[in-house]
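Contributing new complexes? Match this layout with NDP.
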Amino acid sequence: MAELINGKVVSRHLRELIASDVLKFKEEYGITPGLAVILVGDDPASTVYVKNKHKACLEVGINSIEIHLPATVAEDVLISKIEELNTDAGVNGILVQLPLPKHICEERVINSIIPEKDVDAFHPINVGKLMLGKPDFIPCTPAGIMELLNYYSVEISGKECVVIGRSNIVGKPIAQLLLSKNGTVTVCHSRTKNLTESAKRADILVVAIGKPDFVNGDMIKPGAVVIDVGINRKEDGKLTGDVDFESVTEKAAYVTPVPGGVGPMTITMLLKNTLIAAKKQISKYFF
Ligand code: NDP
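Output block (do not edit by hand):
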């Protein structure tokens, strides 16, 4: 039976460390780190995410600035708001909750956040720095996965790491991070042939595709570490991951549950990135 990788426990532990670091930072510089979160429209899932981010900020002593714009807001108005925040000294991190309404170009909006305040690490400059192995910020979900592996002392160097999914926010950056820790990385996607064959080779398998219970016990190597990033809502309203937990837990050494695995780590890493941003802005420690 696999051991559970408990994201709630790790997240709580890290939030305590972040809270004490925020306090030290305030004492030393007299500045409270600030995160501005922009929500456009009233999408229920996005509204919940933004509320959770606000609560988490308060919990660790970070100022949370919530900006709610109507779904009909013009792209230029949204970008002007971001430009205002770019120069606001009380704001260290800026996040625009995605997805945005269809009439707004997400790429233009992301690119309008200055890289120094881009705590989601989606700006091309931050993506490039990650590629070069010199990131200022690591995107939150992949950063959370790395923290989980570290907390459970999972060795990455020399291991076969297989990532299923190649999105810009999860698959590609986690592949890069595993590579930077000397894993041998394979990235699979919807056009991959013999995906099971690749998955079965994995010592560490990261699944981020958005397909409920896609990976089952027959697709993994005995003793593998299985990280399930997926968040899917079933017809009965319950959440499930991309991994069939029951069958995988029989064979894996470690597995993340959904909920309670990767999920709680994402916001924690956002808090960490906001603190990093505040520290770097003080010291102007950006390349
Ligand atoms: P995307 O939809 O952006 O990307 C999905 C990826 O999965 C694509 O690369 C796609 O391949 C690949 N894929 C889809 N179907 C298959 C298949 N049958 N076989 C192999 N590969 C496949 O998703 P995200 O990366 O944004 O999210 C993935 C999941 O993770 C979702 O459930 C999402 O809700 C969850 N998530 C959870 C987070 C958390 O905090 N825990 C944060 C972010 C996401 P191709 O490129 O070829 O189309």
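Reviewers usually confirm one structural detail per submission. For this one: Residues 141, 164-167, 169-171, 188-192, 195, 208-211, 229-232, 262-263, 266 surround NDP (CB under 6 Å).
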